[in-house]
Amino acid sequence: MSAQHHRRSTCRLCGSRHLTEVVRLAPTPPANAFVPRSELGKEQERFPLDVFFCEDCAHVQLLDVVDARVLFEHYVYVSGTSPVFVKHFEDYAAFVMERFKPVAGGLVLDIGSNDGTLLSFFQKAGMRVLGIDPAQEISAEATARGIPTLCGFFGADLGAEIAASHGKAQVITANNVFAHIDDLSGVVDGVRGLLAPSGVFVFEVSYLVDVFENTLFDTIYHEHLDYHSVGPLVRFFAAKGMELVEAIRVGSHGGSLRGIAQLKGGPHAVGASVAEAVAVEEKLGLDKAATLSKFAADIEALGSELNALLKSLKAEGKRIGAFGAPAKATTLMYHFGIGPELVDFIIDDSPLKQGLYSPGMHIPVVSSTDGFAKKPDYLVILAWNFAQVIIGKNVAFQESGGKFIIPIPKVEVV
């Protein structure tokens, strides 16, 4: 074990020790650990990426925990650079305001608030807002832009401090972060202590049903400690003095779950969506370890197909680049053995990543202008959840004879 990593021995939701390994992926460096040219000579530490199933509550999770400061204090992902996500968060805020009608001017707190994109829409709707995020530069910039943001990790202690200084919250949100936290129990203790009696806790996470059905194995990386399904969450919230009142499927990240919880006995009726989701999960067999072991076989089949395609194109002398450098690309490239010998460069629109090199594989990340100037024959869309947007914006590449390769959920040449 390294100083930056430890392996837990109990389920993150129920504390059970009855854990079965169901998927073993290639060890990788942290998925967002892009490096500058000056560090190319340094070997990047890789950590195990093994997925476990809890035999007692059916929760699916990583037990290998990389120090959160290593993963998040100098983060390079910001929501505001993606028009798709800006629109998603605008609709999300409108949904919460309409459905739960929080008290005007009440507090909305966002855990893992990133650049404050979601909170800005609550602010426009007349709510007081407060963000919490561990990324130093991003939280300072959000505050400067008028979204007050505390730099740190949320838990029971910070929740109590905020309740004392700002009052109870009408709405607490946590998006693409409720799967990132090792001490989920402590976070929910903090939420329970901070939530107003009629308040709601709204979170979005990658949904195990979508991960399983569409072989979205590349959403498995060290930041994502949990692969949530509704059955285990119902039991977890009940044990924490809260109740899950909605479990809504949304399209972001290839398929996510929007869960909504309240204090036990709160004013909102439990919607039909909760029981419906549990029924779908049981029908798929996601409450059994054997089902997830079959998932591992599907991943290997997909990898063989993609690898064979890229190797045959290289053998024909084709130039291959990639489009998009999301965190999930690290898992895909390591597990399928796709390195600089197959992919020459990666185009990414984020200025925070341009000029850097991909985690571990050290493939250069460039702007679209520089990437298209290299005249690639094929571009592998690593940000496959935005494939249609990327293809639509780059018609000229296809008109000049270029082709896109979409690797997931099935290998497709466009």
UniProtKB/TrEMBL annotation:
Q: Name one GO molecular function term.
A: methyltransferase activity
Q: Which residues form a coiled coil?
A: none
> Which GO terms fall under biological process for this protein?
methylation
Looking at the record, the residues that make up the C-methyltransferase domain are 252-409
Residues forming the Methyltransferase putative zinc binding domain are 11-72
Q: Which Gene3D superfamilies does UniProt cross-reference here?
A: 6.10.250.3100, Methyltransferase, zinc-binding domain, NAD(P)-binding Rossmann-like Domain, Vaccinia Virus protein VP39
Write down a Pfam family by its short name: Methyltransf_14
Q: What protein name does the entry list?
A: SAM-dependent methyltransferase
In its UniProt entry, the species of origin is given as: Paramagnetospirillum caucaseum
